[in-house]
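Subject line: Sequence and fold of a protein, written as structure tokens
Body of memo: The sequence and its backbone structure tokens, given next.
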Amino acid sequence: MEQDIAINRVLRDLKMQGLIAEEESANVRFFLNALWVASWEARGSEFGDRRSREIIQLDKKGRPLNEFHNSMEAAKKLRCARKTIRKSLLTGKPTDRGHLWKYVENEDTRRSDMD
């Protein structure tokens, strides 16, 4: 609904300013729809890139076990809830299985954790 309203307003403004004729509305509407979809896809991928952080799975003694690109990948591979991993990341407390989780801050942190 939001998309239709925005496109209709843009078309109305373009017509009022004399930039497009009534006959051209259908063609312009098509391109405005394509632009809208492209902007949503770009925004979604930017958000995903921004929110995706590498994480390390640690045992009870703090030794690294595995490294994952993000919590979603870890949850799929370990067959557990992503919510469980995220809770451990936020609180610093171990999961029911006894694993701790930490974000990879940078390359230096990763090397020192893995040694």
